[in-house]
Amino acid sequence: MAHDWNLITSIPPGASVAATDRFLAPLSSRENITLLPLMLLDIQQYGVAPYPLTQPDYLLLDEEDVWADLVQAQSLAWTALFASNMIPRFRTLLAEGNYGIIAREGSAFLLEKNKRQTTIPPFSFEERGVEGLTGGLTLDRLGSVKLVTDITDR
Q1: Domain count, the chain
Q2: Residue 154 confidence (pLDDT)
Q3: Which domain holds residue 94?
């Protein structure tokens, strides 16, 4: 968690942020925060309206969070129609915002708008592929959340 805090405190207080689930609670006091997976889906929760692809000042993502969101998007009725667009929209977001990676801690990345110096290589969730993949989250008997998929070798 100390590594998360280093990434979070690197973001100026007034900056807009799109983040994955792992970072929402610590960022919740900010005025302008967006859930990155919904932005990538291009649809608001439960499909109520389109979700515009904005360009926040910072992107804070955990590769495993994005992977879990991709798996779940393939599995839920209201997101399945949009799931195949998530990775292309992610790449569009990176290109249009000219994002560059400014910090990394394990599977977590902090990207800043207009900071690209080189092409950003594929993230692990992009390389795994999601075609035909289904799954979701489950709780073990100790209450720990675990991602399960129907394909274990990805």
Answers
A1: 1
A2: 43
A3: 2-128
